[in-house]
Write a structure and sequence with these properties.
globular; 16 helices; mainly alpha; Hydantoin permease
């Protein structure tokens, strides 16, 4: 998918779709207008490819951090909460994609990006939102960019920490984490330079196979010497729950990737079907997370580390191999997760400010320069705050409480405003509750994470 694919384009999509499009225009559009017929992607992905990308985008470093998250929530509370948060995330993704489709029909455009959807929501929705219209795209882009850059930072720290854990067994004296992280700057830069999302599909398949292998190895270690289940706390302290919430949200919510994938599908109508890409993918992801988190916390209890791979015996060849292999899988995901951030900055802030006479070569040069800057920024942040678990929780609580819960609710209110909110305006009340959940999660989770990060850095814990 090239950089232009995020723009609204009303270009021919083939004879049948072209005929339907002309018929819609002749009939006046309205409720008969189908936005999907007015999309154009140069490299559309199939349902299977989209599912592969979704699984790879959702199953990242967060899954290996979930056992530590259960330390904050407690075992029983963690199992129940993860299933509920998984359902909440899936529902909010449905709300977001469905509401964007409704707004596209009202505006008679083929595609709306997330920032465009928020701007339209503020302009169409309740009067109290109108004042935020001019600022909505910038605010949404800020959260989207922070989210994707934050994920990339987490991936860099993950690779550095795990490779250092292996190398420390063979290299004496030990080399600092900073140097190990910097060693991977060029490889991360190279994968960020891949501009076509479709080219990453085969690598995502390989990464998914590595992930399955990692689960097998995790199972091998966690099923050994299990303590009595009754010895594991069922509930954690309430003050620690925001840290669990942030990590869980980071792990399960993939709104940035989902929007990009749905927009790039050859058959987007299949995305929201009962047994479509989104439901199948999220059900698989949720139960994988619950199972691995439960077993990891059961095996290591309070000794669990920010990545469960760090709990494996460092001298075991199998443990060393899986740390390297899963680091490779995370490295592959870096290109996928960095893609939305590059597209947002490029299409909203760089290309519009360039001269109309700018050559394609100049535009391409600026794009590659942007990709280099994104990699440099993620490395700078990852080296400055190499606290894997807390970084994961902060990104989840701060970004995804807004992007994954509150913002979709706002967009849905606007999409059905003012006279299609259902009996008793139940959609308004339901979305109001989602907005409250999102705001509370953002404030409480971010405060807890920042407090713990400052405390850890002050105590020299890195």
């Amino acid at each position: 998918m090239d950089s232009a694919d995020d723009n609204v384009r009303l270009e021919p999509l083939g004879p049948n779709k072209e005929e339907k499009k002309h018929a819609q225009i002749e009939n006046g559009g309205g409720e008969d207008f189908d936005p999907h017929l007015h999309r154009h992607s140069e490299h559309p992905t199939t349902n299977a490819e989209t599912l592969v990308h979704l699984l790879k985008g959702a199953i990242g470093t967060g899954i290996l951090a979930m056992p530590e998250a259960f330390k904050y929530s407690g075992m029983i509370n963690g199992i129940i909460s993860t299933i509920l948060i998984g359902l909440l995330c899936t529902y909010c993704l449905h709300v977001l994609v469905r509401s964007q489709y409704v707004m596209c029909r009202r505006l008679r455009v083929g595609l709306l990006t997330y920032p465009e959807s928020m701007k339209a929501a503020c302009e169409m929705g309740p009067t109290c939102l109108r004042r935020f219209g001019p600022w909505a795209p910038a605010i949404t882009n800020f959260f989207l960019i922070f989210y994707q850059i934050g994920i990339c930072c987490v991936y860099i720290v993950f690779v550095g920490v795990n490779i250092k854990a292996v190398a420390d067994e063979y290299i004496k004296p030990e080399i600092s984490l900073t140097l190990y992280t910097l060693m991977f700057f060029i490889p991360f830069l190279l994968i960020m330079m891949v501009r076509n999302l479709k080219l990453l599909a085969p690598f995502s398949i390989a990464a998914n196979l590595i992930t399955l292998l990692t689960f097998c190895v995790v199972g091998y270690y966690v099923f050994q010497n299990l303590p009595p289940f009754s010895s594991i706390p069922a509930f954690g302290p309430l003050v620690s729950y925001p840290l669990y919430f942030g990590t869980c949200l980071f792990s399960l919510q993939a709104c940035g990737v989902v929007i990009a994938l749905e927009n790039n599908m050859a058959e987007p109508k299949s995305f929201l079907k009962p047994f479509g890409v989104l439901n199948v993918g999220m059900v698989l992801v949720t139960f994988i997370y619950v199972g691995l988190a439960m077993m990891g916390y059961w095996r290591y209890a309070d000794e669990i580390k920010p990545s469960i791979t760090l709990n494996f015996p460092s001298t075991d060849i199998l443990a060393q191999a899986i740390r390297i292999l899963y680091s490779t899988a995370i490295y592959i995901s870096y290109g996928l997760q960095g893609y939305p951030a590059v597209q947002i900055i490029l299409t909203n802030y760089i290309l519009p400010n360039m001269s109309t006479s700018a050559s394609d070569k100049k535009k391409l040069t600026y794009e590659y320069l942007l990709r280099f800057v994104c990699v440099a920024v993620t490395f700078a942040l990852g080296i400055t705050v190499p606290l894997l678990g807390l970084f994961i929780s902060l990104v989840g609580a701060f970004c995804l409480s807004a992007l994954g819960i509150a913002f979709p609710a706002i967009i849905e209110i606007a999409a059905y405003w003012p006279d299609r909110l259902g009996p008793g305006k139940w959609i308004l009340w339901k979305d109001g509750l989602l907005i409250i959940i999102g705001v509370v999660g953002l404030v409480a989770g971010s405060y807890s994470c920042i407090y713990e990060i400052v405390k850890s850095l002050a105590e020299g814990k890195t």
